[in-house]
Input
Amino acid sequence: MKLLILTTIFFIPLKLYPQSYRLLDKELPVLEIGAGVGWAHLPYYPGGSEMRDFIIPFPSFVYRGKKIRADEDGGLRGRFFSSERFEINTSFGFNLPGSSEDIAARRGMEDLDPIIEVGPGIIYHIIPRSKAKSFSLSLNIGLRAAVSSDFQHTQQRGAVFSPLLFSWYQITDHLTLFNGLSGTWASQQFHAFFYDVEEKYSTSNRAQYKSESGLFSSSFSNFFIYNLKSQWSFVLGFVFENFKDAANRNSPLLERENTFSTIVGFNYWFYQSEEKTKGIGAI
Output
Protein backbone atom coordinates (compact mmCIF):
# COMPACT_ATOMS: atom_id res chain seq x y z
CA MET A 1 0.00 0.00 0.00
CA LYS A 2 2.06 -1.47 -0.34
CA LEU A 3 -1.39 -1.07 0.70
CA LEU A 4 -1.41 -0.91 4.07
CA ILE A 5 -4.69 -3.46 5.10
CA LEU A 6 -8.41 -2.93 5.15
CA THR A 7 -9.16 -4.70 8.43
CA THR A 8 -12.63 -5.78 7.43
CA ILE A 9 -11.31 -7.44 4.26
CA PHE A 10 -7.78 -8.00 5.51
CA PHE A 11 -6.92 -10.58 2.85
CA ILE A 12 -6.60 -7.80 0.22
CA PRO A 13 -2.94 -6.72 -0.19
CA LEU A 14 -3.76 -3.07 -0.84
CA LYS A 15 -2.99 0.19 0.96
CA LEU A 16 -6.45 0.40 2.54
CA TYR A 17 -7.92 1.11 5.92
CA PRO A 18 -10.76 -0.27 8.03
CA GLN A 19 -14.31 0.34 6.97
CA SER A 20 -15.32 3.52 8.74
CA TYR A 21 -18.75 4.56 9.86
CA ARG A 22 -20.54 6.96 12.19
CA LEU A 23 -17.65 9.42 11.92
CA LEU A 24 -20.06 12.18 12.94
CA ASP A 25 -20.86 10.58 16.30
CA LYS A 26 -19.57 12.36 19.39
CA GLU A 27 -18.59 9.03 20.94
CA LEU A 28 -17.53 5.75 19.35
CA PRO A 29 -17.06 2.26 20.85
CA VAL A 30 -13.48 1.41 21.77
CA LEU A 31 -13.91 -2.08 20.32
CA GLU A 32 -16.16 -3.27 17.50
CA ILE A 33 -16.26 -6.81 16.13
CA GLY A 34 -18.01 -7.99 13.01
CA ALA A 35 -18.11 -10.48 10.17
CA GLY A 36 -18.80 -10.17 6.48
CA VAL A 37 -18.24 -11.41 2.94
CA GLY A 38 -16.03 -9.81 0.30
CA TRP A 39 -15.29 -10.25 -3.40
CA ALA A 40 -12.09 -8.99 -5.00
CA HIS A 41 -10.69 -9.05 -8.53
CA LEU A 42 -6.95 -8.36 -8.49
CA PRO A 43 -3.59 -9.45 -9.99
CA TYR A 44 -1.82 -12.55 -8.71
CA TYR A 45 1.18 -10.32 -7.94
CA PRO A 46 2.13 -6.65 -8.52
CA GLY A 47 2.48 -5.95 -12.24
CA GLY A 48 1.28 -9.39 -13.30
CA SER A 49 -1.10 -9.69 -16.24
CA GLU A 50 -3.27 -12.51 -14.87
CA MET A 51 -6.10 -11.72 -12.47
CA ARG A 52 -7.81 -13.79 -9.80
CA ASP A 53 -11.11 -13.58 -7.95
CA PHE A 54 -11.76 -13.99 -4.25
CA ILE A 55 -15.09 -14.63 -2.59
CA ILE A 56 -14.40 -15.14 1.07
CA PRO A 57 -16.02 -14.64 4.49
CA PHE A 58 -13.90 -12.68 6.92
CA PRO A 59 -13.80 -11.51 10.53
CA SER A 60 -13.34 -7.80 11.16
CA PHE A 61 -12.62 -5.47 14.03
CA VAL A 62 -12.04 -1.84 14.86
CA TYR A 63 -10.10 -0.95 18.01
CA ARG A 64 -9.69 2.62 19.19
CA GLY A 65 -7.35 2.17 22.16
CA LYS A 66 -4.77 4.69 23.34
CA LYS A 67 -1.72 2.56 22.53
CA ILE A 68 -3.11 0.01 20.06
CA ARG A 69 -5.36 1.04 17.17
CA ALA A 70 -7.04 -0.21 14.01
CA ASP A 71 -9.35 2.61 12.98
CA GLU A 72 -10.17 5.23 10.33
CA ASP A 73 -6.55 6.41 10.19
CA GLY A 74 -4.80 3.11 9.59
CA GLY A 75 -4.66 -0.64 9.97
CA LEU A 76 -3.51 -2.44 13.09
CA ARG A 77 -0.68 -0.48 14.69
CA GLY A 78 0.98 0.33 18.01
CA ARG A 79 1.15 4.02 18.92
CA PHE A 80 4.17 5.42 20.77
CA PHE A 81 3.08 9.06 20.67
CA SER A 82 -0.11 10.79 19.57
CA SER A 83 -1.61 14.27 19.52
CA GLU A 84 -4.45 15.94 17.65
CA ARG A 85 -2.41 16.13 14.44
CA PHE A 86 0.52 13.75 14.84
CA GLU A 87 1.13 10.08 15.60
CA ILE A 88 4.26 7.91 15.80
CA ASN A 89 3.46 4.21 15.47
CA THR A 90 4.40 0.75 14.31
CA SER A 91 3.02 0.06 10.84
CA PHE A 92 2.27 -3.26 9.18
CA GLY A 93 1.86 -4.48 5.60
CA PHE A 94 0.97 -7.73 3.88
CA ASN A 95 1.14 -9.34 0.42
CA LEU A 96 -0.91 -12.35 -0.62
CA PRO A 97 0.74 -15.66 -1.59
CA GLY A 98 0.51 -17.05 -5.10
CA SER A 99 1.10 -20.48 -6.64
CA SER A 100 3.44 -20.21 -9.63
CA GLU A 101 1.61 -23.08 -11.33
CA ASP A 102 -1.42 -20.80 -11.57
CA ILE A 103 0.59 -17.98 -13.17
CA ALA A 104 1.74 -18.49 -16.76
CA ALA A 105 4.62 -15.99 -16.50
CA ARG A 106 6.02 -17.78 -13.42
CA ARG A 107 5.28 -21.41 -14.30
CA GLY A 108 8.11 -23.66 -13.15
CA MET A 109 9.43 -21.07 -10.69
CA GLU A 110 9.15 -21.04 -6.91
CA ASP A 111 5.80 -20.06 -5.39
CA LEU A 112 5.26 -16.58 -4.00
CA ASP A 113 5.01 -16.95 -0.24
CA PRO A 114 3.04 -14.39 1.77
CA ILE A 115 5.05 -11.34 2.82
CA ILE A 116 4.68 -9.61 6.17
CA GLU A 117 6.03 -6.08 6.67
CA VAL A 118 6.61 -4.28 9.97
CA GLY A 119 8.39 -1.08 10.95
CA PRO A 120 8.05 2.47 12.26
CA GLY A 121 5.47 4.87 10.83
CA ILE A 122 4.08 8.35 11.30
CA ILE A 123 0.68 9.89 10.59
CA TYR A 124 0.22 13.64 10.16
CA HIS A 125 -3.29 15.07 9.92
CA ILE A 126 -2.99 17.97 7.47
CA ILE A 127 -6.71 18.74 7.76
CA PRO A 128 -7.96 16.92 10.88
CA ARG A 129 -11.47 15.52 11.04
CA SER A 130 -13.95 17.79 12.81
CA LYS A 131 -17.70 18.04 13.11
CA ALA A 132 -17.58 21.39 11.29
CA LYS A 133 -15.84 19.86 8.25
CA SER A 134 -16.94 17.05 5.94
CA PHE A 135 -13.39 16.63 4.56
CA SER A 136 -10.12 15.51 6.15
CA LEU A 137 -6.64 14.99 4.70
CA SER A 138 -3.78 13.01 6.24
CA LEU A 139 -0.32 11.69 5.41
CA ASN A 140 0.78 8.22 6.52
CA ILE A 141 4.46 7.31 6.08
CA GLY A 142 5.80 3.84 6.79
CA LEU A 143 9.28 2.32 6.61
CA ARG A 144 9.00 -1.44 7.03
CA ALA A 145 11.22 -4.51 7.01
CA ALA A 146 9.76 -7.37 4.96
CA VAL A 147 9.95 -11.14 5.46
CA SER A 148 8.34 -13.95 3.48
CA SER A 149 7.25 -17.21 5.04
CA ASP A 150 5.73 -20.55 4.04
CA PHE A 151 4.87 -21.00 7.75
CA GLN A 152 7.86 -23.31 8.13
CA HIS A 153 10.75 -21.07 7.05
CA THR A 154 11.16 -17.31 6.84
CA GLN A 155 13.41 -15.23 4.63
CA GLN A 156 14.33 -11.55 4.74
CA ARG A 157 13.02 -9.53 1.80
CA GLY A 158 14.61 -6.14 2.43
CA ALA A 159 12.81 -2.90 3.20
CA VAL A 160 9.82 -0.93 1.91
CA PHE A 161 9.20 2.83 2.11
CA SER A 162 5.56 3.70 1.47
CA PRO A 163 4.06 7.21 1.95
CA LEU A 164 0.29 7.47 1.55
CA LEU A 165 -1.77 10.66 1.24
CA PHE A 166 -5.39 9.87 2.08
CA SER A 167 -8.66 11.70 2.59
CA TRP A 168 -12.12 11.06 4.02
CA TYR A 169 -15.12 12.93 2.61
CA GLN A 170 -18.45 12.60 4.40
CA ILE A 171 -20.89 12.85 1.47
CA THR A 172 -23.98 12.18 3.62
CA ASP A 173 -24.58 10.87 7.14
CA HIS A 174 -24.45 7.34 5.66
CA LEU A 175 -22.05 7.60 2.72
CA THR A 176 -18.29 8.20 3.03
CA LEU A 177 -15.66 8.48 0.30
CA PHE A 178 -12.07 7.38 0.89
CA ASN A 179 -9.29 8.39 -1.53
CA GLY A 180 -5.65 7.39 -1.30
CA LEU A 181 -2.58 8.34 -3.35
CA SER A 182 0.64 6.46 -2.65
CA GLY A 183 4.07 5.54 -3.90
CA THR A 184 6.24 2.61 -2.86
CA TRP A 185 10.05 2.42 -2.97
CA ALA A 186 11.82 -0.79 -2.02
CA SER A 187 15.25 -2.38 -1.67
CA GLN A 188 16.69 -4.80 -4.22
CA GLN A 189 15.73 -7.81 -2.08
CA PHE A 190 12.05 -6.85 -2.14
CA HIS A 191 12.01 -6.28 -5.90
CA ALA A 192 13.91 -9.55 -6.44
CA PHE A 193 11.17 -11.53 -4.70
CA PHE A 194 8.73 -10.59 -7.47
CA TYR A 195 10.88 -9.85 -10.51
CA ASP A 196 14.16 -11.80 -10.43
CA VAL A 197 14.61 -14.64 -12.92
CA GLU A 198 17.48 -16.97 -12.01
CA GLU A 199 19.37 -18.72 -14.78
CA LYS A 200 17.79 -22.08 -13.90
CA TYR A 201 14.32 -20.58 -14.47
CA SER A 202 15.10 -18.75 -17.72
CA THR A 203 13.35 -19.89 -20.91
CA SER A 204 12.99 -18.61 -24.47
CA ASN A 205 10.10 -16.46 -23.26
CA ARG A 206 11.54 -15.57 -19.85
CA ALA A 207 15.05 -14.14 -19.93
CA GLN A 208 17.34 -14.16 -16.93
CA TYR A 209 16.92 -10.96 -14.91
CA LYS A 210 18.37 -9.39 -11.77
CA SER A 211 16.38 -6.66 -10.05
CA GLU A 212 17.46 -3.23 -8.82
CA SER A 213 16.27 -1.13 -5.90
CA GLY A 214 14.06 1.91 -6.47
CA LEU A 215 10.45 2.76 -7.26
CA PHE A 216 8.16 -0.25 -6.93
CA SER A 217 4.84 1.30 -7.96
CA SER A 218 2.47 4.22 -7.54
CA SER A 219 -1.24 3.81 -6.90
CA PHE A 220 -4.57 5.55 -6.48
CA SER A 221 -7.44 4.03 -4.49
CA ASN A 222 -11.06 5.12 -4.35
CA PHE A 223 -13.60 3.58 -1.94
CA PHE A 224 -17.23 4.28 -1.17
CA ILE A 225 -18.44 3.10 2.26
CA TYR A 226 -22.16 3.08 3.00
CA ASN A 227 -23.16 2.63 6.64
CA LEU A 228 -26.67 1.48 7.49
CA LYS A 229 -27.37 2.43 11.09
CA SER A 230 -24.62 1.05 13.34
CA GLN A 231 -24.71 -2.60 12.30
CA TRP A 232 -24.11 -2.73 8.54
CA SER A 233 -21.28 -1.45 6.33
CA PHE A 234 -21.09 -1.83 2.54
CA VAL A 235 -17.95 -1.05 0.54
CA LEU A 236 -17.22 -0.62 -3.17
CA GLY A 237 -13.66 0.19 -4.14
CA PHE A 238 -11.20 0.47 -6.99
CA VAL A 239 -7.40 0.52 -6.94
CA PHE A 240 -5.31 1.68 -9.90
CA GLU A 241 -1.61 0.78 -9.75
CA ASN A 242 1.00 2.13 -12.16
CA PHE A 243 4.39 0.54 -12.97
CA LYS A 244 5.45 2.75 -15.91
CA ASP A 245 8.42 4.25 -14.03
CA ALA A 246 9.14 1.21 -11.84
CA ALA A 247 12.82 0.41 -11.31
CA ASN A 248 12.39 -3.06 -12.81
CA ARG A 249 10.08 -2.25 -15.68
CA ASN A 250 12.30 -4.42 -17.95
CA SER A 251 11.78 -7.63 -15.96
CA PRO A 252 9.93 -10.28 -18.01
CA LEU A 253 7.76 -10.82 -14.93
CA LEU A 254 6.57 -7.20 -14.82
CA GLU A 255 4.06 -7.62 -17.61
CA ARG A 256 1.77 -4.61 -17.33
CA GLU A 257 2.23 -0.86 -16.95
CA ASN A 258 -1.11 -0.55 -15.15
CA THR A 259 -3.36 -2.83 -13.13
CA PHE A 260 -6.91 -2.20 -11.97
CA SER A 261 -8.47 -4.01 -9.00
CA THR A 262 -12.07 -4.06 -7.80
CA ILE A 263 -13.35 -4.83 -4.30
CA VAL A 264 -16.92 -5.27 -3.07
CA GLY A 265 -17.96 -6.32 0.41
CA PHE A 266 -20.37 -5.98 3.28
CA ASN A 267 -19.94 -6.34 7.00
CA TYR A 268 -22.25 -6.90 9.97
CA TRP A 269 -21.02 -5.47 13.28
CA PHE A 270 -22.45 -7.69 15.99
CA TYR A 271 -20.50 -6.39 19.01
CA GLN A 272 -19.79 -2.90 20.32
CA SER A 273 -18.07 -2.34 23.64
CA GLU A 274 -19.75 -0.28 26.33
CA GLU A 275 -16.49 1.64 26.76
CA LYS A 276 -16.49 4.71 24.53
CA THR A 277 -13.93 7.12 23.13
CA LYS A 278 -14.25 10.50 21.47
CA GLY A 279 -15.43 10.52 17.87
CA ILE A 280 -14.63 13.27 15.38
CA GLY A 281 -11.23 14.81 15.90
CA ALA A 282 -10.24 12.31 18.60
CA ILE A 283 -6.70 11.05 18.09
